[in-house]
Design brief:
Elements lengths: L3 H22 L23 E5 L7 H18 L5 E5 L27 H4 L5 E3 H8 L3 E9 L11 E5 L8 E2 L5 E2 L9 E13 L3 H8 L4 E5 L4 E2 L8 H8 L5 H15 L3 H4 L19 E8 L4 H4 L7 H14 L4 E6 L3 H10 L4 E3 L1 H4 L7 H14 L1 E5 L5 H13 L30
Parallel strand pairs: 1-2, 1-9, 2-3, 4-8, 4-9, 8-10, 11-12, 11-14, 12-13
Antiparallel strand pairs: 5-8, 6-7
This protein binds guanosine-5'-diphosphate-beta-L-fucopyranose.
């Protein structure tokens, strides 16, 4: 006989699958991922479970995108056995987001940066605000704070254990027995249970733990960057499937596309970069041509110290950029950078004879959610260039590589990086991660 709980699970699952498939059917060219907010609408009575997560506060935007892929795949594997929804952690106050309007950069929903309907084609997702509405109170059942093993690392073996906290945790119990912590700046939110968990494990290892050792309807994994991809890394279909679902939000793509057309003579039709719903999009290397410009990602700020050897001087960067412009017979250069204004002016002077574009100057009105939005627009424009040169081991650059793999660029035009002034001219170039369908 089918139990009541099993019936519930089935109903929820059917609802999610139905929502997703009907939305895929309803797409049109205007907006690939339309259909209202394609978020599963499930009331508190349903037996679905919620997985929440957060990342070390010091981590940047693009590593966080990689952690999303790990958690999304964990939720995908969980859904093979029971219905879980991934709660998207609001964005805010990232170390690198230092523009003055910080208040605008807290509690930012994913839909401002990514197409949440597209994410939902991979796994059921919900914004944190919607989670709070769904559970009806600012409550999370269980929080696990992932940490290292106190005794350190002797040999590699997969393990996770509830342990005493190694460092003072950023959660405290209040006089009502509620655990108070960061929770994305939502002061009213609390947890009913809190534990530290030492972990040295692949994402799949968390599945049996979540299914068998937790009972709460909502489980929060903090410091989720400690969860390792394992076999579901960049070399796997699963990683790429999660990656392909991370489509930027349409309103940001639109601004960047307008910029491409107006300043760089670039549009999807001519560049052969037209988008389809990602589940149906399968390009071969060389299918994409790209706009008539060279794009560079020139990382500065903290990289000038943390990767001093591999970061070129502005003089050298200009020299390398000119070599590519000559090789590809192009006149326009798009510059994505976190450099300051003086550096920009200096760099532009050294590029005499070429047209240098960077979007901040042209779209100053894009100040809403400024740093995250401009980062995405820069990445989008770099992803559409005829040829791209990136910065050594920058996750910002890596995400551009992947976007170009998705669009179908020849790998020779993608996996290039600047060499530091003291490195050989033919310094080691980035690993060519090949898209897997
Ligand atoms: O994205 P991200 O993790 O890349 O961090 P890395 C860099 C941040 O700097 C981005 C800004 O989120 C942006 O806010 N940024 C960098 C840029 N380059 C650009 C650019 O071309 N255009 C725009 N608009 N913004 C890691 C950090 O950075 O580097 C780690 O996440 C650590 O915390 C490590 O500092 C050394 O991988 O480049």
């Amino acid at each position: 006989m089918v139990s009541c709980r099993a019936m519930h699970i089935l109903t929820v699952y059917v609802t999610v699958v139905f929502t997703l498939t009907s939305f895929v059917r309803s797409h049109n060219e205007e907006n690939l991922y339309q259909a209202k907010d394609n978020l599963p609408t499930m009331g508190p009575a349903k037996s679905v479970r919620y997985l929440l997560y957060d990342v070390n506060p010091g981590e940047g935007f693009n590593l966080r995108r990689d952690v999303y892929m790990r958690v999304a795949n964990l939720v995908k594997f969980l859904n093979e056995d029971e219905p879980w929804i991934l709660v998207l952690p609001p964005w805010g106050r990232l170390y690198h987001w230092q523009t003055t309007h910080l208040s605008a950069q807290t509690k930012v929903q994913w839909k401002y940066f990514f197409d949440v309907n597209s994410l939902a084609l991979h796994v059921p997702v919900i914004e944190f605000e919607d989670y709070l509405k769904a559970v009806g109170k600012p409550e999370i059942d269980e929080v696990y704070y992932l940490q290292r093993y106190k005794e350190g690392w002797t040999k590699w073996e997969e393990k996770i254990d509830i342990r005493e906290c190694v460092d003072p945790p950023r959660y405290q119990k209040d006089s009502d027995g509620k655990w108070r912590g960061q929770f994305f700046g939502y002061e009213e939110v609390y947890a009913k249970k809190f534990e530290c968990m030492s972990s040295q494990a692949y994402l799949l290892t968390f599945k049996p733990f979540l299914m068998k050792n937790t009972t709460g309807r909502s489980v929060f994994l903090d410091r989720a960057e400690n969860m390792i991809h394992g076999q579901y890394s960049e070399w796997s279909r699963e990683w790429w499937t999660a990656r392909r679902s991370m489509v930027f939000s349409k309103h940001l793509r639109d601004v960047a596309d307008k910029f491409r057309q107006e300043k760089l003579d670039s549009n999807d039709k001519d560049d052969k970069t037209e988008l389809e719903v990602w589940t149906q999009m399968k390009r071969k290397h060389g299918d994409a041509k790209g706009g008539p410009y060279v794009a560079i990602h020139l990382r500065r700020k903290d990289y000038l110290y943390s990767h001093a050897k591999e970061v070129p001087s502005l003089e050298n960067a200009a020299k390398i950029a000119k070599t590519f412009l000559k090789k590809y017979k192009l006149k326009k250069l798009f510059l994505a950078t976190d450099a300051n204004g003086d550096d920009l002016t200096h760099f532009e002077k050294m590029m005499k004879g070429y047209e240098v574009y960077y979007h901040k100057v042209f779209y100053p009105e894009m100040t809403e959610y400024f740093d995250g939005a401009t980062a995405i627009m820069d990445q989008w424009i770099c992803a559409h260039a005829r040829v791209f040169i990136g910065s050594h081991v920058s996750t910002f650059t890596f995400r551009i590589h992947e976007e170009r793999e998705i669009l179908g660029f020849d790998q020779e035009t993608t996996f290039n990086r600047f060499c530091g002034d003291d490195e050989p001219k033919d310094c080691e170039q980035p690993t060519k991660w090949k898209i897997i369908y």
